[in-house]
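Final report, closing paragraph on structural work. Over the funding period we assembled a curated collection of sequence-structure pairs, and we close with a single example.
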Amino acid sequence: MANLGKPPRESNVIMTELVLPSDTNALGTIFGGKVMAWIDIAAAIAAARHARKSVVTASIDALHFLQPIKMGQVAHIRASVNFAGRTSMEVGVRVDSEDQLTGERFHTVTAYTTFVALDAKGKPTPVPPILPESPEEKRRFEEAKMRRQARIRLAEDLKNNPPAM
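Its predicted structure, as stored:
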């Protein structure tokens, strides 16, 4: 069976989470690790939707927290596959916070993740290519190709020169 391409919209994920007291630190803002977990979950769902196979996280690019998410706010997590290689996919994730009383929203985090599709034996397996349609999807696709090259270089560098501990 041919691996026909798919548009990014077929992998879209939208998650909404209420920030509870158990999710926050002593300052009443969300733990970064909680946000990272939500990013990983949303991205995994998007990658699995695209591949229609089991997927595993290969990498998460640097995260920069632009705004705090406070207890009682709502976090909106959106994910979509930007690019697909032979067995891997870049999934872009954006997290926004919403003040429930005012409706005001803030961009809090953007992350780029890489997932690999696995076959029944746990080995990397091919995924369909991405077929970007809109100008925004085409821009994200082209930028993802550049990030992919940088990730490949970094992985090779880490493999050949492991950091000292």
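The first helix runs from residue 32 to 51. The radius of gyration is 17 Å. We thank the funder for supporting this effort.
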